[in-house]
Each structure stands twice: as C-alpha cells, then as structure tokens.
Design a protein that fits this description.
By secondary structure, the chain is α/β, with parallel strands linked by helices. Helix content is 39%, strand content 17%. It contains seven helices and seven strands, in the order ααβαβαβαβαβββα. Helix 1 packs across helix 2 and helix 3 packs across helix 7. It starts with a helix and ends in a 6-residue tail after the last helix.
Length: 211
C-alpha cells in the first residue's frame, strides 16, 4: 500500500527536521549519465527527499551494467532513463522526474542543463566528462557541477575524497584510477564515489561548502 504524501513527508521531516526537508523538497538537480555513478546518485537523492530530478542518458541497459549499476535483469534492453525513472518512483512516489533520452554534446549541453543550479556529471568516459564540465563552466554561469573521477577496482575506500576545484566545480573520487588500470569497475567503490557526489549535492542544497 502506497503511503499518502502527508505520511511520506511526515517521516522525512522526522528524519531530517522540517527546515532541512523543505530545502531538499524544493531542490532541482540534473544528472548527466545514468550508469554506475548516475543511477546510484539518483537513488540516494530520491531517498533523501530531493524534490525534482532531471535525468539524461541515451543508452539502454545491458548485461555488462549489472555489476555496478542500479538496474535489474528485467531492465535489460530498456532505456536507462525509463528504467531508472520507474525505480525512483517506486522508492519515492512523490518525486518529480523528467528525462531526456539523448546524447549530451557541446551543442546541446547548455540548453539541457542551463536552468539547473546543480548538475551531477556522471559519465564513464574522460572525454565526455571534460566536455560537459567545460561546456557548463563556459556557458552556464549559475550552474555548479559535481563530478566523479577515479573509482575503479577494489583499492582502499579511503582514497575517495570530495574536493572543490573551482568555485563552481567539485570533484569526487581518487582522481587517478581508470577502469583499464585496476581491475575494472566494481559496485562498492563506484557506489562510494556516487554517494560522495550525492552528499555534496545535499550539502550544496543546504548551503554548505567543502573545505
């Protein structure tokens, strides 16, 4: 049985306090890329009570995704935007979700994300990460970017950090490891990095900054 919106919000307020929950409920966050980083980020933000998520990815779920991404066998062959949106609604039925099933390019990045104060960069490829960060820094002066870099293998969890690099850019990860260097990508470290991103988003929504 689905709880009413009032019941849902009452529990969230008990967990967070009303001032904190009100800020989260009124927040809008965009996530670019819905793989290991993006799917985990989205779920953590939905569980925390963030009111609106905008999801962007062009890919479909395949078998190679299941070792670290928040999809299931039944999602195979479905666009990630659709599969993840459905799962988020099962977690938080009152969250507002919109999505674009499209590839992000230098030509459309500012149009897609320019209306959002916080954008999570969650791509797998370094060139795509750099493209989005550079595009948003150059063209979207009100947008803060939270990015992930370095989460491969099964090295120590403690090497994953959150750092403010520029005024509008935060990097989460070890900034070193690549999937080809240290035993590919595994769920634990990918999820740790993703939750660094999600936690930084929450801190920004609440007016906190990283030191």
């Amino acid at each position: 049985m689905t709880p009413s919106k009032e019941e849902f919000e009452r529990i969230m307020i008990e967990r967070h306090t009303k001032p904190v929950y009100d800020k989260l409920k009124n927040a809008r966050v965009a996530i670019a890329g819905l793989g290991g980083l993006g799917s985990n980020i989205a779920i953590s933000l939905a569980r925390a009570g963030v009111g609106e998520l905008f999801l962007v990815d062009f890919d479909k779920v395949d078998l190679s995704n299941l070792n670290r991404q928040q999809y299931e066998i039944g999602d195979l062959g479905i666009y990630k935007t659709e599969a993840l949106s459905a799962r988020l609604k099962r977690i938080n039925p009152y969250i507002e979700i919109s999505y674009k099933t499209i590839k992000v390019t230098p030509e459309n990045a500012s149009e897609l994300f320019g209306s959002f104060n916080i954008v999570c960069e969650a791509f797998d490829r370094a060139d795509m990460k750099a493209m989005l960060i550079n595009s948003l820094l150059a063209e979207c002066p009100d947008t803060v970017i939270v990015s992930g870099s370095g989460m491969a293998g099964y090295l120590s969890s403690n090497t994953i950090k959150t750092k403010q690099v520029f005024r509008r850019l935060y990097i989460c990860g070890d900034t070193v490891t690549d999937m080809h260097d240290v035993n590919g990508l595994m769920a634990p470290r990918v999820a740790i990095c993703a939750n660094h991103e999600a936690n930084m988003v929450i801190r920004l929504i609440l007016g906190e900054k990283e030191v």
